[in-house]
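Researcher: Batch entry, complex prediction.
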Amino acid sequence: MKHRIMDIIQEKPWLGWTIFLGTIVVVFLIGLLAASIMERRGEADLLVQVEPIADWEPRNEVWGENYPREFETYRQTADTSFLSKHGGNGTIDYLEKYPNLVVLWAGYAFSRDYKQGRGHYHAVDDIRETLRTGVPMPGTCWTCKSTDVPRVMNERGVGEFYRDTWTNLGAEIVNNIGCQDCHDPKTMNLRITRPALIEAFERRGKDINLATHQEMRSLVCAQCHVEYYFKGKEEKYLTFPWDEGFSAEDMETYYDEVEHVDFVHALSRAPIIKAQHPDYELYMTGVHAKRGVSCADCHMPYRSEGGVKFTNHTITSPLATVSTSCQTCHRESEENLIRDVYERQDKIEEMRMRTEDALAKAHMEAKFAWDKGAGEEEMKPVLQLIRQAQWRWDWVAAANGLGFHSPVEAGRTLGAAIEKANQARTLLVRVLARHGFTDPIPLADISTKRKAQAYIGLDMEKNRSAKQEFLSTVVPKWDKDAAARESKY
Amino acid sequence: MKHRIMDIIQEKPWLGWTIFLGTIVVVFLIGLLAASIMERRGEADLLVQVEPIADWEPRNEVWGENYPREFETYRQTADTSFLSKHGGNGTIDYLEKYPNLVVLWAGYAFSRDYKQGRGHYHAVDDIRETLRTGVPMPGTCWTCKSTDVPRVMNERGVGEFYRDTWTNLGAEIVNNIGCQDCHDPKTMNLRITRPALIEAFERRGKDINLATHQEMRSLVCAQCHVEYYFKGKEEKYLTFPWDEGFSAEDMETYYDEVEHVDFVHALSRAPIIKAQHPDYELYMTGVHAKRGVSCADCHMPYRSEGGVKFTNHTITSPLATVSTSCQTCHRESEENLIRDVYERQDKIEEMRMRTEDALAKAHMEAKFAWDKGAGEEEMKPVLQLIRQAQWRWDWVAAANGLGFHSPVEAGRTLGAAIEKANQARTLLVRVLARHGFTDPIPLADISTKRKAQAYIGLDMEKNRSAKQEFLSTVVPKWDKDAAARESKY
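Model: Structure tokens for the complex:
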């Protein structure tokens, strides 16, 4: 046979070259085939649903039957042990850790209770249990807590949802933040279910339907991880203050124009804007956003299991998943990368501490000035500076990630906060001097949460027992009604 | 002939396979050869000197005969037109641009004249011409200006060099910063010629001889681009305050321990530390240093010309050489990269402006307090805060790069400066109130350099004519003596 081939080659020498070149081409194609075999099947190939998901299905476990990997990783947001490795357990008591906060929020429910956020899986439990809730609150407060929200909004109308009371809606809202919030149940495409984001885009002259898939991988998060307020005394219409832009100054311009005040401070009487969690806005000023890295790229990195590539739905700090979150771009050791994050956060925290210290003192000193007979007119510039400082501080402090989403912008904003808080204190010394007081202003001991809460006059026993009453009477009724409703699905 | 080969193959079939595999091996080797031919010859291969360079040769043009590419690029530091594209022309008058600086430096020569640094090629001209020089100054002031320094230090001894007067040494120091400062004339290896850096390493228990080549590509710059002071009233011994570390706080600890004061402020009487240009220290806190990127990687990127790869000695902003400086690592458009740098710098500049404004006012208000009869004791904490604030501000402001070398650390440090400058102002209001003054403190108009210099009592006409006198009498004599000396080389 060998000899037979050689005979042919001898007769037709061009044939030898053809075989030679042909071999090269075939080997190349075999390589392509091998790559194709080894390639992981993407999520998109797995769309066949065991059982079709109903349009407004709020139950994450029902979606989970079709998408077990996404659901299992989502369910792991129940576990807060990662957070304990990194300085928390998902329930750090921030008021205990930073007692100045109690004073900063005197006159507002945050002074009673403010803990580290736990995972999405705990959203409903956490809002029920915090000492901040149970008091009269609008339906709007449920907006970001549950997959039931799109369903109820669809049934009743968006405006009606916001306008209702939080207590009235309690029995409707029982499923934690999950699948329905971000996905179309038929196509699994990302979709925006919360009107406030769509409306904010519209007011900026933008059509959110034109967002790319990569943009959507941040925008679904921006439905909730943003700054917002409740517009209208009755309407309580959830609104993002984005009309002027995303920076602390831009949003302040908006709030000043609409004369928005979240609360009048109980000590200083400053008209305070309480920041929510402007994660998306701060992130947008940082380098990751500039490079087209989405929220999901870091917080929901791709994984593979059994040859299937899927998105990790255990949404938490990317420090829990450095190898898939960071190291896909940053070829540095995990140790180095974590240290780099901590270094930035430590610097921002130092600036936060400077601001919180000055702000807490400014509030207390302002109260002292009022007590000494200071007048409205002379206090006006003081209160304005306190409002500006506290807003800038909160714009950084309330956002997740301790400033890491954009450390230079966080520092710049805190720099302005430090200036304004201290300028307020300078003015206060002059106000007091004019009322005959030139000694150092005596300040209360607010070195612990307990002392600070006592100083601002909170009756924590009463708050706690009211919450117990609420949890043992109202909540069980909600759960019973919800179970009855869901049994009919 | 074709048929003859086929005959042989038919007789010895293994020969066909040998030719086939042999061809593959040969083609591979030809590939290696081609790569070797196309490879650029490195600088190290070009060590044969046309004429050997003498041990302490200060003249850059003599070195340049052997290393024309390095010399030509070095000589281009004469051209400051790049700087003009990026907001300067190499001679921005900072006092004109930021008149607050005049007040910050009242009582110190920087209040007379402070311009943007030009390239290394202008070092000697610039120090001769600035209005800051001509007054009694120690020899130490020449240390970083010239390739003549290692020669004169070798001839006279280091301590003698520092102790001499600046005017006495003028005829010796005529060649601009250049080759001798960083290179061994025989091997062209990088070497440290300035004792202060070696001594600072020793005091930190480190041997600079163990530095890697990559570390040396920053350390040769750190001979001068650092914070330093002149130790000893007579000795004026050039010393880096690195014993406690590199941060503003670490160096302040050192300075406080040795009770160092650069000048007592003419208005506030605060004991000020004047920062030099802690470029290396700020850079060491940033991510480029953490990733092992040296000064030279960005400021002296590799180039090739005529197949020879060499280091670009046109040391200036890397924004002039984005493609070789930045884009070797950062695969982003030049436009994006430059915008990213400017964004960081703008944020840091905003914080600088806040600090400069507060500091200038604090100095003027302190003077007002002294004038109103304030006492030493009550002013002590005020002056301490001003010292701390101004040092932190200057640690960032005096460094090149507008904070870009480490934006988060620059922001953190400025945050502390903003706090302390404003705290000083708060105390001053109370001091004044105790002396019966509770109005807003009247401040002079310092909105231009001219107004600010008049306010602090500078006779600029006198300064300028003294400088003209110096340039037309002393300097020509220096040059004549130097030419006579060099003609004997």
